[in-house]
Amino acid sequence: MASTQAAQGARGAQVLVASNRGPVSYAVREDGSLHAKRGGGGLVSGLSAIGPDAGALWVCSALGDGDREAVRRGVGEAGVRMLAIPADVHSDAYNGIANSVLWFVHHMLYQTPLEPVFDAEFRRQWVSYETYNRAFAEALAQEAAPGAAVLVQDYHLCLVPGMLRELRPDLRIGHFSHTPWAPVEYFGLLPDDVAAEVLRGMLGADRLGFLTQRWADAFTTCAAEFAGGLGDTRIGVHGLGADADFLRRRAHEADVDERVAALREEIGAAPDGSARKAIVRVDRTELSKNIVRGLLAYRQLLDDHPEWRERVAHVAFAYPSRQDLAVYREYMAEVRRLSEEINSEYGTPGWTPVVLNLKDDFARSLAAYRLADVALVNPIRDGMNLVAKEVPVVSDEGCALVLSREAGAYWELREDAITVNPYDVMETARALHEALSMAPEERAERTKRLAAAATALPPAQWFLEQLSALRA
Ligand code: F6P
After folding, report:
1. pLDDT (tens digit, 9 = 90+) per residue, 168-181?
2. What contacts 123, CB < 8 A, 6 or more positions away?
3. Which atom of ligand 1 is nearest to the CA of 99?
4. What is the spatial distance between Cα 301 and Cα 306, in angstroms, rounded to a whole number?
5. How far is the CA of 17 from the centre of ligand 1 (A)?
6. Residue 160: which of 141, 134, 195 has the closest Cα?
7. Which residue among 229, 255, 334, 393 is the one 20 to 30 A from 139 at the CA level?
């Protein structure tokens, strides 16, 4: 480990990435020492593709007490600068604005008779959001070499491009949205000045990236309506794909093999002794993922097609997310309650209809991907949804994909998936029946084509494509 700023030296970085969550996080051990945990994902493999000598720097926020302690002690990784934004400012910006307002707007999550309410508390939190974005803009301005490329990520940091442009007009600034973009009528829920500020911030970039043409078009419409158009800012679409090499290797390591065996045991056998079929879903317990309607559709399937009882299990992995927000905690409780209800209504001594797991375990997720007969991916709205792309890559014997038309992945996978309106529980139940009934040969053929489409743009290429477009 080395002190980050020292590692960068005075020459400045040539490529900078900025995101709320960084590639590493810290926890304080009982003996007071710091334990570093490295994360994965598209940006991590993207950055590694440009190599360690490319002069890259990742600017991120300290998220918890461990991170703040690491910054205080001057502990860090080469190539990473963590910003010790005060905890209260970060909480207002991340929980209050990013996750409770901007995320809700882009995913259309409000129950509009009662919310949103843009009151004095919102205005107070908005000031924190500006402060948090300014801290990023200032750090990037400090660290960037003349003419460097800066790739800002997501809705947490949508004011950064405009702020950074003012501080450093020489930089090439890109912004990438990993979420959908709201339709213009829904974006218009925001107070006019806030809507204009968000768009002005984004339009400070030379280039804006989106996961699908649909989200890019929504942004363009909002810019025309609330900001007088795109100006000089260019728009690009880069549909992040699954990392096939990594997934195929990781999915066959010993810990995953062990979990495949354990999960098969837990799912059990049908009365005729054949392996029970598995409808698998893996998500963060996120309001937009539509886990509750997925359970309702499964219950409908058991009602409409009693022949599936005892012959199928719904394996639902719903990992904790954003637990500082009450509405996420309540959603998680509802997922648990409904699963228990289905199990007590339909379960028999030898059959647990819903196998629910709420504890994050990547190896077990891969095990579930491998043995899934059906993958259920039914978000009410999703930027891409990488689970839909990962399952076909890892599947042992082919897996039928039930896919929401509101996921970004729909546009690339729709031909070989069984597609659904995520609000229509009856249609989703029918789709599950169709998926379970699909002949093994057809399933295997479709899975091959799904895997090819899902890996068309692996993370490294996704990143390099954006970088060269920004520099062009
Ligand atoms: O989809 C947007 C996003 O920020 C992803 O990049 C990330 O995987 C997810 O949300 C998780 O968010 P958080 O950092 O709040 O856990």
Report:
1. 999 999 999 999 99
2. none
3. 15
4. 8
5. 15
6. 134
7. 229
Tell the residue number behind the tokens 């509101």, with chain if given.
406
Count of CA atoms in the C-beta half-sphere (13 A) of 351: 21
State the CB neighbour count (10 A cutoff) for residue 280. 28
8 Å CB contact between 185 and 226:
no
pLDDT at 7: 43
For ligand 1, say whether the CB of 212 is within 6 Å of any of its atoms.
no
pLDDT reported for residue 10: 54
Of 24, 97, 103, 178, which is best to mutate to test ligand 1, by the most ligand atoms within 8 angstroms of its C-beta? 178
Under-70 pLDDT residues of the chain = 1-10
CA of 103 to the centre of ligand 1 (A): 10
Q: Could you tell me the pTM of the whole model?
A: 0.96
Angle between helices 192-203 and 213-227 (to 10 degrees): 120
Asked, as a colleague might, if the bond just before 116 is cis with ω within 30 of 0, I would say: yes
Ligand 1 atom showing the smallest separation from residue 156 Cα: 4
Residue in the block written with tokens 């450093």: 168
Question: 386 C-alpha to center of ligand 1: Å?
Answer: 12
Structural domains in the chain, CATH included, are: 5-86+132-240+461-471 (3.40.50.2000), 244-454 (3.40.50.2000)
Q: What is the Cα–Cα distance from 12 to 29, expressed in whole angstroms?
A: 33
Ligand 1 center–CA 55 separation, angstroms: 26
Closest CA to 395 of 356, 359, 446: 446
Residues ≥6 apart with Cβ < 8 Å to 445: 398
Concatenate the DSSP letters of all residues of 24-81 into one string: EEEEE-TTS-EEEEE--SHHHHHHHHT-TTS-EEEEEE--SHHHHHHHHHT---TTEE
Q: How much distance in Å is there from the Cα of 189 to the middle of ligand 1?
A: 23
